[in-house]
Design a protein that fits this description.
By secondary structure, the chain is mainly β. The chain is built from one helix and four strands, in the order ββββα. The strands form two sheets. Strands 1-2 form a two-stranded antiparallel sheet. The chain has a two-stranded antiparallel ribbon with strand order 3-4. The relative contact order is 0.28.
Length: about 50
């Protein structure tokens, strides 16, 4: 799950990405091939209570 958009958590939304989309480089998790627009166009995820 990633938070995309917004600034300092305001106006952002959560989207779900498969773990296989992440790669580890220099002890950091990197999402390759994604653009800001492609992430923002994904449907939002809402936690259920």
């Amino acid at each position: 799950m990633l938070s995309v958009g917004g600034s300092l958590g305001v106006g952002s939304k959560y989207v779900v990405m498969p773990a296989s989309a992440l790669q580890v480089r220099d002890d950091k998790r990197v999402l390759t091939g994604a653009t800001k627009e492609s992430l923002q166009s994904l449907p939002g995820y809402t936690y259920t209570k």
